[in-house]
């Protein structure tokens, strides 16, 4: 005879599907601004205004982002989070950033490195772009030569 195990669905779902999200909009979450005058800068969510807006702070002396309200659409959530209370002061935020070495950890991520490389390429002069092209050609020739020997 067959045995049937009946498990309530709300108990079985966590095992069937892993957590769908792991980054949440919450005070202390470090975010990257993707649009606007501060685009490309990192800041921290300090308070939640409503479903679509949050208050962010750099602090300005550290990241160049002053405390202001932003739509969540213009932010990208990172993996980094600090324990902060809602509406934390700038001084508290600075201490938390230094304690967790958040900005140092951010600069070591591949995401930050890609953004930095993109910015560097954007600021190349015409002559630097030319030198880069010549170096790529030389590398291509060297690779082809090495592959031909094998």
Q: What would your notes on this structure say?
A:
The protein has 150 residues and is an alpha+beta fold. β1 and β2 form a beta hairpin. The mean pLDDT is 88.
Features:
alpha+beta; 5-stranded antiparallel β-sheet; 6 helices; 5 strands; 44% helix; 19% strand
Topology:
Elements: H1 9-16, E1 29-33, E2 42-48, E3 53-57, H2 60-63, E4 68-71, E5 75-81, H3 90-100, H4 102-107, H5 110-122, H6 126-149
Antiparallel strand pairs: 1-2, 1-5, 2-3, 3-4
Number of helices: 6
Proportion of strand residues: 15-25%
Return the average pLDDT rounded to an integer. Answer: 88
Percent helix among the residues?
40-55%
Rg from alpha-carbon coordinates: 23 Å
Question: What would you say about this model in short?
Answer:
Helix content is 44%, strand content 19%. It is built from 6 helices and 5 strands, in the order H-E-E-E-H-E-E-H-H-H-H.
């Amino acid at each position: 005879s067959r045995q049937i195990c009946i498990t309530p669905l709300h108990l079985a779902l966590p095992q069937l599907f892993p957590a769908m999200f792991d980054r949440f909009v919450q005070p202390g979450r470090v975010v990257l601004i993707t649009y606007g005058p501060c685009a490309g800068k990192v800041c921290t969510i300090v308070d939640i205004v409503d479903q679509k807006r949050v208050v962010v702070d750099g602090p300005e002396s550290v990241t160049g982002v002053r405390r202001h309200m932003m739509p969540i659409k213009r932010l990208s959530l990172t993996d980094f989070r600090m324990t902060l209370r809602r509406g934390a002061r700038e001084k508290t935020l600075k201490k938390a950033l230094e304690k967790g070495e958040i900005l140092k950890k951010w600069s070591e991520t591949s995401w930050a490195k890609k953004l930095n490389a993109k910015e560097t390429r954007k600021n190349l002069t015409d002559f630097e772009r030319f030198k880069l092209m010549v170096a790529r050609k030389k590398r291509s020739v060297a690779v082809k030569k090495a592959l031909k020997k094998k």
